[in-house]
Amino acid sequence: MSARRIVVTGGTRGIGAAIAARFRAAGDEVIAIGHAECDVTDEAAVAAFFDRTGPVDVLVNNAGVASSAPLAKTTVQQWQKAMAVNAFGAFLCTRAVLPGMLSRDSGRIVTVASTAGLAGTRYTAAYTAAKHAAVGLMRTVAAEVAGTGVTANAVCPGFVRTDLTAESVRTIVARTGRTAQEAEATLAGMNPLGRLLDPAEVAAAVGYLADPGSGAVNGRALALDGGGIP
């Protein structure tokens, strides 16, 4: 199999870095970008980036931000930033690559969402709404490409051992006075697995959905939480 060109947004750390490493190990050409390389919320920047990149075989929409607050204390800035990065960014990148994929009748689009994109979670109104939007976007794209060689799917992990989760731990500590160990145990306990996921586990799911042989899987939101969400 010839090498594929893979674009991973938010691909320089955490889950994105694990995804990029998995594809590189398989011999693919990987373009892993962070905010410094391309602001996924900037329409002109996204268009220019994909013009330079050329044909893309697999797009992984992984760029994301998170914040937590009770709804009454959620700021407009928090809401807008969550929507911009988690949902609008996925829209811009998907829109940029989709015509080329359809013209070649081949392509895989995988969005890294969250279990928060499948069920409501307290104190995460902006993040949860944005991840629901991202999952909805993929389901719509999947409906449009059904019957072609292109698929669109999402992976929805629970809490993963990443910088974002570490920030959540620090927030819990600051607000509740718990220790970092207690705060992490609280988050881990929200996964039916009873532990935080490893980024490599998310990368494995992305790799499956991006595989050329996965063409029958389209419009799925794959929960990675150990069995808590049907």
TrEMBL record:
The keyword Oxidoreductase applies. The keyword Glycoprotein does not apply. InterPro entries: KR_dom, NAD(P)-bd_dom_sf, Sc_DH/Rdtase_CS, SDR, SDR_fam. It holds the Pfam family adh_short_C2. Keywords: Oxidoreductase. Residues 4-149 form the Ketoreductase domain. One of its GO terms (molecular function) is oxidoreductase activity. Belongs to the short-chain dehydrogenases/reductases (SDR) family. This is SDR family oxidoreductase. It comes from Amycolatopsis pithecellobii.
